[in-house]
Amino acid sequence: MDILAHLGPFAPLDAAAVGFIVVVWLLTGWLTEHPPTQRPSVTVLMEDYRRDWMRAFVTRQPRIFDGTVIESLRQGTAFFASASLIAIGGGLAMIGNVGTVTNLAGALSIEANPAAVPLKILLVVGFLSNALLKFVWSNRLFGYCSILMAAVPNDSTDPLAYHRASQAAEINITAARSFNSGLRSIYFALAALGWLIGPLGLVLATLAAASVLIRREFASRSRVVMLNR
Questions:
Q1: What is d(CA 220, CA 229) in angstroms, rounded to the nearest whole number?
Q2: CA–CA dist 96, 91 (Å, integer)
Q3: Could you report the per-residue pLDDT of 111-135, keeping only the tens digit for each?
Q4: CB 84 within 8 A of CB 132
């Protein structure tokens, strides 16, 4: 309560800016995973390719390549999970040493209320914590996917072959969604740093992060390549 009492006259603007970044974060994730039918996102296009991958996996001999790909995906999720955990530790350390942040802000000619700094860093830590949970779950799901892939019969005429492959594909897609969600949280964690400048800085940083994500999902060169099926 003492922190809230010292936020100053701009507390309503700060609250509005925090609400803005949360809403934009949620809407960006929803739009990415539920795009208009006539304009699919990169995330949705990749889901079709993941299903194609599992169908091709049934008849591929040997299957070492597929196992290597899954392992590389798990390594990616483990790396980002570790990085997020380290960043969370750094954020919590900053909360315990607010003077360093205020001194840095002063050196950059930025006004920083020492009582408000912990709340602003907590917003960053909150996004990073969500990213960590998403990456950990994604890593586990890719593990499940590898087991389902191992359960696919070697005989492509086996009635279970394509069924098991389909199951592996859907788990693969779910894992990828969690991974992408974690990446979005990192983008918005970076945007949350804009709050150290002020509510306007948070709003502008949020718009910048959202615009980068939307462009990469709906207007990138990679999307054009994926559409040429």
A1: 16
A2: 9
A3: 555 567 778 889 999 999 999 999 9
A4: yes
What pTM was computed for the model? 0.88
CB 137 within 8 A of CB 80: no
Per the listing, tokens 């979005």 go with: 184
Number of domains in the chain: 1
In a domain? residue 149: yes
Phi, psi (degrees; rounded to nearest 5) at 26: -65, -40
- Structure tokens belonging to residue 98: 């607010």
- Kindly report, residue by residue over 175-201, the tens digit of the pLDDT: 999 999 999 999 999 999 998 888 999
Output the DSSP codes for 128-166: HHHHHHHHHHHHHHHHHHHHHHHTS-S-TTSTTHHHHHH
**Can you give the residue range of the structural domain that contains 123?**
14-26+41-227
